[in-house]
Amino acid sequence: MTKTAENLTSALSSSTRKYGKALVTSIFVTTKVSKLYGYEHQNFEDGITGFLKVVNFFVRNEGSTTLAVVNEFLVLNETSLKIDLGGYQSYRHVVDILREREVGEVVFHDGVERAELIRFIRLLNQTANEDDPWAGFSQAFQRANLEHVEVSKIEITAESELSVDPDARQAAIHAYYRTMDATSEAQEAFKEGARWNPKRLKRSAQNIVDLVMSEESTILALTSMNHGASPAVNHATNCTILSAALGAKIGLPKRTLGDLAFASLMHDVGKVELPDGPDPKCAHALEGARKLLLSGRVSNSVIRAMNVALLHHRAYGGGGSPSLSVDIDPCLLTGIVSVCNTYDRYVIGTSGGADPLLPAEALSKVIELGGKTLDPLLVRVFVNLMGLFPVGSLVRLDSGELATVTRSNPKSELLHRPYVRVFSSASGENCDLFADLSELTGGEFKRSIVGSFHPEEIELDLGEYLSVI
Ligand SMILES: [Fe+2]
Q: Among positive and negative, which fits the CA dihedral 338, 344, 348, 354?
């Protein structure tokens, strides 16, 4: 592509994103306002005017407006819409409302009228059919007779690449250890009351972001290891990786990802000087925010980190610890860190003093908490990212082979059939083979997982584990 063509493509994508945000907001406002005040209310009328304007903008420029749900994300005329911090609530609402009805794509064609958009919003406001959401929605859609609107059922596409680049894998392993060193050093400095170097930590956080974007599977696999300089350092590092991966998955811009990774690295900094053991009043959250405030120059990223440190145990939708005199809802970055913190605490086994859980078991605990204490959309994206057998899990196959999970299957109905790296044959010999567990042979799945286990159960030491992820 020439430079001019590249510039033009990028300018078009950014205007699509800008108008895309307006489109998402229109759907959010019109569905919400009509439910609250009815279809005659002025705010509903204004919302529909904005909706029609933005649809017509795309129809004029690109011939039609196609809004698609791909996994948990919105794609408008082939440009993926990014979630920004202010627009998160409306983005989440539109993904939810379409997914609940199993609508994968909505196309608005040239000639679409105001009355059609009103009828479309009315359809979205009808309760989804629990037994067969798509059948319920598409029948109502046919009856509504929307001449210039088309809808189709959700479909999730699969990736095909299986293998891992060995150099990138090595770089990911080094970055993991460098981050642990930097975290360890900062925690020691905090303990001794010495000055700490936020720049070094921010660099480590940024490194993790870069690796998550280029070598996601290895870096995610490292989070399932249960070792490190100390459990606190291990936990901070794992949370940083998981948060950066989850943030990248929902499309946060790189700069915000850097702030997210830094905030995640520091989320439990308030624990450094507190005695070990349960902290029912969440004193570490207040202490962490205080430490960050007193850490020197309070930049935007430090303010975001303070927010996360203070609120990462607060529940989605309000409540939780610490109790505050004003009710503050956790922001998107805090919601992400809360999901990753919960998951990792189950994996490392410090949640309520319990034994470490297998990654798959920890994930089912997180799923149970979705919509209760954790944001359900973020939990869904997290499950999509990790798969039901999270990346890094050691699994036994019905073929008798042993394998590590390298990547989740992007089809939600195949989350229990990830991509794996087989490292031990049925006869117990070393091997190295990448496989897709959704692969069929003669109408049957070629390989299936029969169980997962801790590395110690097969006497796999750290070095051996690192060579098979
Ligand atoms: Fe905490």
A: positive
- Tell me how far the alpha carbon of residue 218 lies from the centroid of ligand 1, in angstroms: 25
The superfamily (CATH) of domain 166-386 is: Hypothetical protein af1432 (1.10.3210.10)
Say how far apart CA 94 and CA 124 lie, in whole Å: 10
* Residue 308 alpha carbon to ligand 1 centre in Å: 10
Please report which confidence band the pLDDT of residue 166 belongs to, taking 50, 70 and 90 as the band edges.
low
For the stretch 264-289, pLDDT in tens is: 999 988 887 777 777 777 888 988 88
CA of 294 to the centre of ligand 1 (A): 19
| Distance of CA 199 from the midpoint of ligand 1 (Å) | 23
Distance 443 CA to ligand 1 centre (A): 48
Distance (Å) from CA 286 to ligand 1 centroid: 10
Model pLDDT for residues 193-213, shown as the tens digit of each residue: 666 667 777 888 888 888 787
CA dist 185 and 261 (Å) reads 17
CA of 169 to the centre of ligand 1 (A): 30
How far apart are the CA of 342 and the centre of ligand 1, in A? 9
Q: How confident is the model at residue 466 (pLDDT cuts 50, 70, 90)?
A: low
Q: Helix, strand, or coil here: 431?
A: strand
| Four-residue CA torsion sign, 233, 238, 240, 243 | negative
Residues 417/105, Cβ–Cβ less than 8 Å: no
Residue 284 Cα to ligand 1 midpoint, Å, equals: 7
Local structure of residue 227 (DSSP, 8 states)? -
Residue 236 CA to ligand 1 center (angstroms) comes to 10
Q: How far is the CA of 367 from the centre of ligand 1 (A)?
A: 19
86 DSSP assignment: T
Q: What is the pLDDT of residues 57-98, one digit of tens each?
A: 888 887 888 898 876 678 888 777 776 666 777 888 898 899
Q: What is the C-alpha to C-alpha distance for residues 15 and 347, in angstroms, rounded to an integer?
A: 42
Residue 445 Cα, ligand 1 centroid: separation in angstroms? 42
Using DSSP, state whether 78 is helix, strand or coil: coil
**How much is the pLDDT for 309?**
93
Distance from the CA of 285 to the center of ligand 1, in angstroms? 7
Q: How far is the CA of 261 from the centre of ligand 1 (A)?
A: 15
Residue % of the chain over a pLDDT of 90:
28
Mean pLDDT across 355-366: 87
Spell out the domain ranges in the chain: 12-153, 166-386, 394-468
> Dihedral angle at the C-alpha atoms of 200, 206, 208, 210, nearest 10 degrees?
-140
- Both tokens of 175, joined, read 């970055």
